[in-house]
Amino acid sequence: MSAREYDVIVIGAGPVGENVADRAVQRGLSAVIVESELVGGECSYWACMPSKALLRSGAALRAAQAVDGAKQAVTGDLDVAAVLRRRDSMTHDWNDSSQVEWLQGAGIDLVRGYGALTGEKTVRVTADDGSTTDLVARHAVAVCTGSAALLPDIPGLADVAPWTSREATSAQKIPASLAILGGGVVGAEMATAYASLGSAVTLVARSGLLANNEPFAGELVAASLTDLGVTVKTGLDAVSARRTDAGLVAVELSNGTTVEAEEVLVATGRVPRTGGLGLETVGLEPDSWLEVDDTLLVRGTDWLYAVGDVNHRALLTHQGKYQARAAGDVIAARAQGTPVDDAPWGTHVATADHDAVPQVTFTDPEVASVGFTAASAEKAGRRIRVLDYDLSWIAGASEQSDSYKGQARAIVDEDRGTIIGATFVGPDVAELVHSATIAIVGEVPLTRLWHAVPSYPTVSEVWLRLLETYGRP
């Protein structure tokens, strides 16, 4: 049977792949998406959406309990079954029919199965029944297969059937006890969620909590987790794991102690989902992250793109979708022979991947950050000034909660007079980070920020307080 031909072949139908295909189609190209699992990808079914659904009920309950007058109305605990039902509704019970309908409406074809390169611009898709479909791209192939949980080489760990983020976000039963290995975003968020849902949680974090953030972020989250009943163990490694006669997982730590729990969640990092992609057929290293330029073109090729987690630039859904918009647009421009705007901050580049990546960790308190930390700015050789402010001193914070705790930090580039980094820790600070992102991407001078007047009483007033800390010119 002859191969089916398209302008663009996209491997992976998560939010990233969907956006690459959609942008290309909007600009007049034909596109097909190849997907071996569910259309909508990791974010829709095993990451962003279900994890936030698991977290939200506990956060809402604690927010009510922190306000006099509201806390008296709270007379019970979380309804765990209702939390899980809400989570299931957010994932559409792991049914992707609505996402498939969206593809059809957008004019994007779908081929289900495992896609692998067989040569330049050629992809073979193998369905579950073993049948194959050959696809040929006139212009580009985009690899948007994402990343998977890293399983560290700890003796016995694979044998105890550990959870990864997938099992943690899709569990239909809450374990009585849960051990978590890793203190990054997944570890901290799932510790918050499962403690809220009644598990006895032990979190083992060798490098501390949220080590890539400002130090106060991990400290405030660790204190909050401890208040929730989580046992936080830092500076320790897991050295072995086994199932006990009682069916529990026993994890031996580097200090000789052992943690026992009904389940163990491994959250120690990510690996690229590039195995079996046929990268070797086009001269690339199999099972590897794919290095790209700022237009998301894989280095050494003029037709292969790697977008989202798989290029290891910024492993975040929103950043992957940002890359996808640039990639879809530049694929169309190159295919149609129109100018490519690949200068910094141009239409066809992902410049923000370097110094302006926003992220929110939905712990309690939330951690929202963008750009440089003080440590990373100094490492990059920037001459900086650090501005700190206690968010509990803000009038809007006292309106929001009777026991508000939080911290804000801004990093000023002294040579340019602009903010290059910001971190906020506190209740609902996720809604603060976009203003910081705009200030950083727009390179807004501090002298101009004085004229951006925050509404009163809101927590956004912290912007005025940070400027006052810096001092008016």
UniProtKB/TrEMBL annotation:
Instruction: Keywords in alphabetical order, please.
Output: FAD, Flavoprotein, NAD, Nucleotide-binding
Q: From its record, what is one biological process in GO terms?
A: 2-oxoglutarate metabolic process
Give all residue intervals belonging to the Pyridine nucleotide-disulphide oxidoreductase dimerisation domain: 357-463
Specify which residues bind NAD(+) according to the UniProt entry for this protein. Answer: G182, G183, G184, V185, V186, G187, A188, E189, G269
Residues that hold FAD according to the record:
K52, G115, T145, G146, S147, D309
The superkingdom of the source organism is: Bacteria
Span of domain FAD/NAD(P)-binding: 6-318
- Gene Ontology MF annotations: dihydrolipoyl dehydrogenase (NADH) activity; flavin adenine dinucleotide binding
The cofactors required by this protein are:
FAD
Note describing how the cofactor binds: Binds 1 FAD per subunit.
Pfam families associated with the record: Pyr_redox_2 (PF07992), Pyr_redox_dim (PF02852)
InterPro entries named among the record's database cross-references: Class-I_Pyr_Nuc-Dis_Oxidored, FAD/NAD-bd_sf, FAD/NAD-binding_dom, FAD/NAD-linked_Rdtase_dimer_sf, Pyr_nuc-diS_OxRdtase, Pyr_nucl-diS_OxRdtase_dimer
Report the SS bond pairs: C43-C48
Which family is this sequence assigned to? Belongs to the class-I pyridine nucleotide-disulfide oxidoreductase family.
Q: State the name under which the record lists this protein.
A: NAD(P)/FAD-dependent oxidoreductase
